[in-house]
Amino acid sequence: MSTPLIRVEDLSVEIKTGRGLLKAIRGVSFEVGAGDSIGIVGESGSGKSITLKAILGLLPNNAQVTAGKIFIKGVDASTLNKKARRALISETAGMVFQDAIAALNPVISVGAQIAEVPRFRLGQSKSEARATALKLMQQVGISDGEERFDLYPHQLSGGLRQRIAIAIALSSNPQVLFCDEPTTALDVTIQAQVLRLLLELRRDSGLGLVFVTHDLAVVNEICDSIKVMYAGKFVEIGGVDDTFNRPTHPYTYSLLKAAPDPEAVVSRLFTIGGEAPNLTLPVLGCPFAPRCFTAVAECGTSEPELRAVENSQSACFNSHEHKSWRAAEQKSGAL
Ligand SMILES: Nc1ncnc2c1ncn2[C@@H]1O[C@H](COP(=O)(O)OP(=O)(O)O)[C@@H](O)[C@H]1O
Ligand SMILES: [Mg+2]
């Protein structure tokens, strides 16, 4: 088996906050190989962005990796100095963050920002780099690139800025693309075009994709596997079809509110009553137990680890009962 492009082993991240030390990531493991497409879903605050930032070496100053390892193309990132690590990650991975305004440089034209890596890292001449940038602009749905090349970020709409950010992420020919809510600012037609481009890159050059999104329709369209995050951990891991049709963790079940007809799946995650736990306090038992429709006494005292359930993995003591959840909920009138 070839070395995965990215491998994360039992990663933990703590963040210093005004309320105390926050255990934001509590033992997360996964890997991304060429051509993989992984969706990460979960409520706001569950640790999705911090996980990606830890991998990319972009944690805020008050956050620290406190346990675990990150391997980039087989190299343990903790053995590299900052500069070497940055070089290795930037030749391996591209990233598109939710906040395209923050990601773009306000005083450099958007065309020049896309051309920068082709020109200065990939060694293209000025005119080659310009041509590369124009091609990327076209690929992300900006047809009048010549006219927009010299504009500054503030002169473009949110949707256009987001597309520029995607073009910049692709300008280094990454082997893996990390996308954190990348298409939320795009209208559906452009979103479809961007997703089509990513799928083509995946098919033609084995681009690995890690996609954080609230949009289940997007996960359904472009991801093979899904990881569901809750309170700093993955609580369910599985294939997209298995997870959408037969969730084995009650949190996933509640997020999906499984439509009777899987084709009619709501495209957004469902909101669940109650709140996620405060991770500045010790976690006693399953962190989802207070909000869970299937919790038993044991759930309040020990925290379940991921274990195999049919084709998936689930961190729930009751996951073997997943087939009966719908019936039980209907009976209790919760559905
Ligand atoms: N810079 C920061 N300072 C303090 N707390 C932070 C910071 N960034 C994230 N957090 C906290 O870390 C937890 C995980 O955040 P995040 O990974 O951004 O969640 P998600 O992306 O899943 O919405 C949240 O409780 C969030 O409030
Ligand atoms: Mg986030």
UniProtKB/TrEMBL annotation:
The keyword Lipoprotein does not apply. Keywords: ATP-binding, Cell membrane, Membrane, Nucleotide-binding, Transport. The keyword Transcription does not apply. Transmembrane segments: none annotated. It is a peripheral membrane protein. CDD domains: ABC_NikE_OppD_transporters. Residues 6-256 form the ABC transporter domain. One of its GO terms (molecular function) is ATP binding. PROSITE patterns: ABC_TRANSPORTER_2. It is found in: Cell membrane. GO terms for cellular component: plasma membrane. GO terms for biological process: peptide transport. Pfam families: ABC_tran (PF00005), oligo_HPY (PF08352). NCBIfam families: oligo_HPY. This is Unannotated protein. It comes from freshwater metagenome.
